[in-house]
UniProtKB/TrEMBL annotation:
Can also use Mn(2+) ion. This is Isocitrate lyase. Mg(2+) binds at D184. Its cofactor is Mg(2+). It comes from Marinomonas algarum. One of its GO terms (biological process) is carboxylic acid metabolic process. The keyword Membrane does not apply. It catalyses: D-threo-isocitrate = glyoxylate + succinate. GO terms for molecular function: isocitrate lyase activity; metal ion binding.
Length: 531
């Protein structure tokens, strides 16, 4: 990154070339505005963040302790506050991303109002949210740098050379709030051409990483719902190709593709692919189709179909809607096949949608995948659809029982009950939850851990608590005690909401543009000065 002084010098040369007509332009102010707007386009962001993801993937391959994390965000402000908090608490945004959840776009961002996660929302709402998130992250950069510029000016005014040098170094070493976004494109919102066109819009908005799933686009279901229908491998690989072409066309050569498989919970297929040669992808896919062995044409009814499966003829099991059923208990085998084929045909990372957060289950699948693809890495959904408390108490219960430890004091089916909250088993379960991401990264190949819907749930919980207190006996104390007092004491940037919304930056710009005649908002009568 160019230093502040270099940028100011370059701006000065540009201004000087224009003679007296640009005499009112201050080169240092130009440098400040350039630094506050480091990324001019979404493609600049996509190229920058793709390199970060590739470096992080290599770091994880070297040491699984270098796993990465993200939280799903449904609004630019939420993403902005998340990254400001990360910088405040940890000093760096490194290895922390944003996740854009298709579920939350459907539930929170559609003009139709709240919708189920079935690709019914406007496809344009996905790139619009990416652009919004990066607009807010760029504004977080501008705001923090504005504070550093103020510190620099104050140090100069006071004649404090040490403080001036410290401010200068802080500006030169500033770390941006802009981080990678893993963006959910669902099943592509149509055919491969539709996938390509939407991918371009997402990349142009700033996405360096696109996650696509192997469900049927027009029958898409949430990964944690029933009724999922997968597509043949050829169809899915065509969409992976479409995403890659979009990245390459736009010059994001190291863009990242996450191939998600829902096969573990999907028991249906919409179509039977045509096999060209024995053992090809279509033949492998069709080997999982459930059906009745046909020994006589008398078994066939009007409209029935028959396919050859290995050495036998079968009549596929079809539902009244025409969907074809897979053989029972083949989900894991289909997941392994999906993942290997995706990695061998252009995908970079995998997403396996599981029905529970169990490291042993995930690890067993990944070990099979790694027999063919040794560097296979996962993006894993630490889903709010899981009952984490019950799942891990039951896992602890089962481990104790297997070890021969006395579990007679516990009812396995009722372990969610608060009566177990202070027990030894509860403590062990909570420790397993605390270490889940670290242990799963080490044992199950998980490079990136995310929670899809956390800010959806935290918004609901905090609003419920505020409404209960404010409209109840606590009145205004419900806000002051539970919100404002905590904001001030925890040093939340948004307690100064005028500053967060850009008021102080606006004052600076007015001064740049108008000089001494600027009408500024942050004078002595600004009530926010009391903070």
């Amino acid at each position: 990154m160019e230093t502040y002084k270099n940028k100011a010098q370059q701006a000065g040369e540009t201004i000087k070339q224009q003679g007296t007509s640009w005499a009112a332009i201050n080169p240092e102010y130009v440098a400040r505005m350039q630094l506050q707007n480091r990324f001019n386009t979404g493609l600049d962001i996509a190229k920058y963040t793709a390199k970060i993801m590739r470096e992080d993937m290599a770091n994880y391959d070297a040491d699984t302790a270098n796993y990465t994390q993200s939280l799903g965000c449904w609004h630019g402000f939420v993403g902005q506050q998340k990254m400001i908090a990360i910088k405040k608490h940890f000093g760096s945004t490194r290895s922390r991303y944003l996740y854009l959840s298709g579920w939350m776009v459907a539930a929170m961002r559609s003009e139709f109002g709240p919708l189920p996660d079935q690709s019914m929302h406007e496809k344009t709402s996905v790139p619009e949210l990416i652009e919004e998130l990066y607009t807010f992250l760029k504004q977080a950069d501008a705001r923090e740098l504005q504070h550093l510029f103020k510190a620099l000016d104050d140090a100069r005014e006071a004649g404090d050379k040490a403080a001036e040098q410290a401010a200068q170094e802080s500006i030169d070493n500033f770390e941006t709030h802009v981080v990678p976004i893993i963006a959910d494109i669902d099943a592509g919102f149509g055919n491969e051409e539709a996938t390509y066109l939407l991918s371009k819009k997402m990349i142009e908005a700033g996405a360096c990483c696109i996650q696509i799933e192997n469900q049927v686009s027009d029958a898409k279901q949430c990964g944690h719902q029933d009724g999922k229908v997968t597509v043949p491998h050829e169809d899915f690989l065509a969409k992976i190709n479409a995403v890659r072409y979009a990245f390459l066309e736009l010059g994001v050569d190291d863009g990242v593709i996450v191939a998600r498989t829902d096969s573990l919970g999907a028991g249906l297929t919409q179509k039977i692919p045509v096999s060209q040669t024995p053992g090809d992808l279509a033949d492998q896919y069709n080997a999982f189709i459930d059906g009745e062995t046909v020994t006589s044409l008398d078994q066939m009814k009007s409209g029935d179909m028959m396919i050859k499966q290995g050495d036998r003829l079968i009549k596929p099991t079809r539902l009244p809607n025409g969907l074809v059923r897979f053989k029972p208990d083949t989900g894991e085998d289909r997941v392994v096949m999906d993942c290997i084929n995706s990695l061998q045909n252009g995908a970079d990372l995998l997403w396996i949608e599981t029905e529970k957060p169990h490291i042993g289950q995930i690890a067993s699948i990944v070990s099979r995948i790694r027999e063919a693809a040794p560097n296979a890495k996962l993006v894993y959904n630490n889903s709010p659809s899981f009952n984490w408390t019950l799942n891990f108490r039951q896992q602890a219960f089962d481990a104790w029982a297997e070890e021969g430890k006395d579990v007679s004091a516990y009812n396995r089916a009722d372990l969610m009950s608060s009566e177990y909250d202070d027990t030894e088993l509860s403590a062990e379960a909570d420790e397993r939850i605390r270490c889940f991401q670290r242990d799963a990264a080490a044992q199950a190949g998980i490079f990136h851990h995310l929670i899809t819907l956390p800010t959806y749930h935290t918004a609901a919980l905090s609003t419920d608590n505020l409404a209960k207190d404010y409209f109840g006996e606590m009145g205004m104390l419900g806000y002051v005690k539970e919100v404002q007092r905590k904001e001030i004491r925890q040093g939340l940037a948004c307690v100064k909401h005028q500053d967060m919304s850009g008021s102080n930056m606006g004052d600076d710009h007015k001064e740049y543009f108008s000089g001494a005649q600027a009408l500024k908002a942050s004078g002595k009568d600004n009530t926010m000065n009391q903070f």
